[in-house]
Amino acid sequence: SILNSEKTANMLASKRIASIIDFMTFYVTCYVQRGLFEMHRLVWVLMLTMKIESSAGQLSQPYIQCLLKAGGALDIKSEREKPAAWLPDASWLNLIQLSRTVLPLRDVCDSLSRNEAVWRAWYDEDAPEAGKIPEYDERLDRFEKMLVVRCLREDRTLLSVATYISETIGQRYMDSRPLDLRATEEESSASCPLIALLSQGADPTAIIMELAKKKKKQA
Predict the structure, then answer these.
(1) What phi and psi values does residue 156 have, to the nearest 5 degrees?
(2) pLDDT single digits (tens) 200-216
(3) DSSP string spanning 130-190?
């Protein structure tokens, strides 16, 4: 990271440190994702993003717990009655927990009761994560908006997560990157070999042989 990160002769120490950290963060992400299935890569980047924001004091532990569990620990018989039949019990419990976790959303349950038609229209949208959250959109940050989607439209959570990540640490963390065998080979050595765990039908022989020809190496 020190050798390969951006540097100039007159760069301030603070900017140089930020450049090193930025390079290392992305490099480690690429390195880790190399060994993950596609479905697990988003989870890794989400964990990384939350850790960065948490370390910077921009994300609290209750918010993270709300994302993970929402209203899973609540009992529908012990809470206030939901105001609309179209709203699933699980989503209502999630909303109650959200109101207890996020201060700007402390009266969101009352809002849904007052403006049921508006919330129903948002709930029924094909892509609610792309629309404005009724009444609260201007008051919420990126993570809080993601929590609303997670609590009411759990099926759209991953898409909302992708938006949160790209707006927080950058779109490049969301871009799909095919395996760069040349770069991977350069990191290996006689004492640190490459091990490929292949799924059924995968055969990297062709790209390995092509790289061997370019480097004029033979088995």
Answers:
(1) -105, 10
(2) 777 777 877 887 887 77
(3) GSPPTTTGGG--HHHHHHHHHHH-GGGHHHHHHHHHHHHT-GGGTS-----HHHHHHT-BT
CA distances from 128 to 2, 45, 92, 116, 141 (A): 42, 22, 17, 16, 16
Q: Is 103 helix (H, G, I), strand (E, B) or coil?
A: helix
Mean pLDDT of 79-103: 92
128 close to 156: Cβ distance less than 8 angstroms: yes
5 pLDDT more than 70? no
Q: How much helix, strand and coil, in percent to the nearest 5, is found in the chain? A: 60, 0, 40
Of 78, 80, 115, which Cα lies nearest the Cα of 99? 80
Whole-prediction pTM: 0.79
pLDDT tens sequence across 46-90: 999 999 999 989 999 999 999 999 988 999 889 888 888 899 999
If you compute the radius of gyration of the chain from its CA atoms, what whole number of angstroms results?
23
- Rounded-to-integer distance, Cα 173 and Cα 26, Å: 7
Predicted confidence at residue 147, as pLDDT, reads: 95
User: CA 189, CA 57: separation in Å to the nearest integer?
Assistant: 40
Contacts of 207 (CB under 8 A, 6+ apart): 181
